[in-house]
Amino acid sequence: DTMNKFQPGSCCTLQIPSLSLVAHPFTVNIVSGHSNRLRILMRQIGPFTTQLVELLECQGQPETNQYIQEEKKECNAESQYNSTISLPTMHINVYGTSQRMAQLYHHDSALIVAGGIGITPYLSMLTEISSSSQASSTLKSVVLHWICRDAALIRYVHEQYFAAILDKSTGSDQGGGVSVRIVAHFTGLDEHAYCYNDGLEAVSYKLNTCDGTPVTSSAYSVSNTRSLVTFATIFCFGTAAAMYFYTYLQSVEVVSTRILGLLAICIISIVISTIS
What we know:
The chain is of the alpha/beta class.
């Protein structure tokens, strides 16, 4: 039933009761060479995905470790070859629409731009385009620009999807099918981690500093204390002034007195901002 619901670009909700009762949305893709299997690619960020990766590592999920070990050399090597896998209970609901592919086939050329793990919605779509036995009467060319700083992710996606897509696209060009061009813009630190010689166009962007792009400071950092104090002071004095005018000076029968509170708040804001 799950495979029948799948469409290129489909999403799914994933719930693992042992980790969380909340269903989390992910993009789901087909697995090349396996018509009865689906794959979820996710970025390890936040409590749920972090706990899920740790759980799958402990259970010895081979395909999970294939990508994780690119970045975590300390992973247990024995788990990669564990033939007995005891996965946790998972509730998966696939949903999606075929409109994405229909819209794509309405144009003669398509330009797709993706960043990082955001490449996932387009993997099955490109696979469908390159594998389609019927040539589109309209769509002739698809160009994908993918900006990514994770060399391991680029290698994995290229091996699992791009290599087959580009190979089939080369044959389609000769037969009048859809031409697919993929350009990977690598923005990581390792300049040589992205190099391929089998159709994938890779462009490297050297960062300005050896430490990468600096993280934007939090809104509540020490450097913003002055602004925080200013707004807090305006809020406190403004609220006090509004309550005072509302209680003692404003009248239900007289409309003109209602503007006094607003004027008082404006004056307080100007004075405090000037002083600070």
